[in-house]
Amino acid sequence: MENKEELEAKILEIVKAQHKKDGGANGVNFGSFDHFLNMSLEERNEFLLRMAKEKKIAVFNSLNMRRITMPK
What is the model's pTM? Predict the structure, then answer.
Protein backbone atom coordinates (compact mmCIF):
# COMPACT_ATOMS: atom_id res chain seq x y z
CA MET A 1 0.00 0.00 0.00
CA GLU A 2 1.19 3.50 -0.74
CA ASN A 3 2.04 5.76 2.13
CA LYS A 4 -0.65 7.98 3.63
CA GLU A 5 0.76 11.21 2.22
CA GLU A 6 0.55 9.89 -1.34
CA LEU A 7 -3.01 8.63 -0.81
CA GLU A 8 -4.03 11.97 0.71
CA ALA A 9 -2.49 13.81 -2.24
CA LYS A 10 -4.47 11.69 -4.72
CA ILE A 11 -7.70 12.27 -2.77
CA LEU A 12 -7.07 16.00 -2.61
CA GLU A 13 -6.36 16.08 -6.36
CA ILE A 14 -9.75 14.50 -7.13
CA VAL A 15 -11.62 16.69 -4.63
CA LYS A 16 -9.92 19.89 -5.83
CA ALA A 17 -10.71 19.08 -9.47
CA GLN A 18 -14.39 18.55 -8.66
CA HIS A 19 -14.44 21.67 -6.46
CA LYS A 20 -13.03 23.72 -9.32
CA LYS A 21 -15.62 22.23 -11.69
CA ASP A 22 -18.73 22.85 -9.55
CA GLY A 23 -17.62 25.45 -7.02
CA GLY A 24 -17.92 23.01 -4.13
CA ALA A 25 -21.68 22.59 -4.46
CA ASN A 26 -21.74 18.86 -5.21
CA GLY A 27 -18.52 17.28 -3.98
CA VAL A 28 -17.56 13.67 -4.68
CA ASN A 29 -18.89 10.52 -3.09
CA PHE A 30 -16.90 8.25 -0.82
CA GLY A 31 -16.62 5.59 -3.56
CA SER A 32 -14.66 7.89 -5.88
CA PHE A 33 -11.41 6.78 -4.26
CA ASP A 34 -11.92 3.01 -4.09
CA HIS A 35 -9.92 2.35 -7.27
CA PHE A 36 -6.64 3.33 -5.57
CA LEU A 37 -7.34 3.05 -1.84
CA ASN A 38 -7.90 -0.73 -1.88
CA MET A 39 -9.24 -0.73 1.68
CA SER A 40 -12.26 -2.23 3.35
CA LEU A 41 -15.23 0.11 3.70
CA GLU A 42 -14.54 0.62 7.40
CA GLU A 43 -10.87 1.44 6.80
CA ARG A 44 -11.71 3.75 3.90
CA ASN A 45 -14.34 5.63 5.90
CA GLU A 46 -12.00 5.92 8.89
CA PHE A 47 -9.22 7.26 6.64
CA LEU A 48 -11.50 9.85 4.99
CA LEU A 49 -13.07 10.92 8.28
CA ARG A 50 -9.59 11.35 9.79
CA MET A 51 -8.73 13.66 6.88
CA ALA A 52 -11.94 15.59 7.57
CA LYS A 53 -11.07 15.84 11.26
CA GLU A 54 -7.67 17.29 10.26
CA LYS A 55 -9.55 19.85 8.07
CA LYS A 56 -7.98 18.60 4.82
CA ILE A 57 -11.42 17.80 3.38
CA ALA A 58 -15.01 18.41 4.43
CA VAL A 59 -17.76 15.78 4.63
CA PHE A 60 -21.40 16.77 4.24
CA ASN A 61 -24.70 14.94 3.89
CA SER A 62 -26.45 15.40 0.56
CA LEU A 63 -29.99 14.18 -0.03
CA ASN A 64 -29.07 10.52 -0.28
CA MET A 65 -25.39 10.07 0.63
CA ARG A 66 -22.36 11.58 2.31
CA ARG A 67 -20.12 13.58 0.00
CA ILE A 68 -16.68 15.14 0.22
CA THR A 69 -15.60 18.64 -0.76
CA MET A 70 -12.92 21.15 0.18
CA PRO A 71 -13.22 22.76 3.62
CA LYS A 72 -14.42 26.35 3.81
Answer: 0.86
